[in-house]
Amino acid sequence: MIHTEYSYETQSRDQLLRVSLYGEIDHHGAVGLREDLDALILRERPRRLVLDLGRIEFMDSAGLGLLMGRYRLMRELGGVMAIENPNRRIMKILTLAGMERFFEISGGLRGEGR
Amino acid sequence: MKKRRSDEKNRMSISLPALSVNEGMARSAIAAFCAQQNPSATELADIKCAISEAVTNCIVHAYPSGTGIIYITVVLYADGTVRVVIKDKGCGIADVRRAREPLFTTDAANERSGMGFTVMENFMDRLVVRSRPGQGTVVIMTKRIGSDPATKE
Ligand SMILES: Nc1ncnc2c1ncn2[C@@H]1O[C@H](COP(=O)(O)OP(=O)(O)O)[C@@H](O)[C@H]1O
Ligand SMILES: [Mg+2]
Hints:
The complex is a heterodimer. Chain A is an alpha/beta fold.
């Protein structure tokens, strides 16, 4: 399957799996991204999963479902998940859904104009 | 405020098959339409997100078995209000009040968050949902754009 909406880079070291995501997360892309992330998690079995959202330009509630699902999987496997560098717009939807209760959110909030 | 047809500055209608590739298509088309009103980046991002929610709902909930059409109309009024109407002829919603509650979803199995209507409500100025089981659903959202104080510095 070819995904044009999003892409990612991964880095795995000392039981830390870092995935830097690019592009847009909506329902259309979330299904493929979910499969890819789960395959990575099950292969690497990290203690800590960090999703870097710094290059994500768009995310709607499908992204919330995606993050919650990965959070649950990490917890099931005895690990933790954290989110890094959400921009202001993504922070808005994360806060609306109370996501900070489930996982650590840090960095980011870089302005993107007015 | 009641809007009259004479207050209309511009209008666009699109109909798209309920395919997930059209989620991004609908966002981009409506964002392009709104650009004429010189919205702030935040206003534009809010509208794109709300539209994505309404269009995705038509795709994942309204027409669960196969295809159908999503009817979208966007109107820009002279006072800078944008009105987005997103309609389907799908299965409808039995209890709209309940459906609009945060975290309510009938499809948790597919990792839905149940936050779609909450996003629409919070990111737009006004949200109206009309639905009848077996007949379909109409989502009407309005937002005043282009008058963000941050734009006028
Ligand atoms: N266009 C629609 N047609 C039929 N049912 C819908 C439609 N939009 C929303 N719903 C119903 O309302 C519920 C809540 O929608 P929403 O807040 O977007 O959450 P989610 O899509 O994550 O379930 C859905 O689970 C579904 O049952
Ligand atoms: Mg939804």
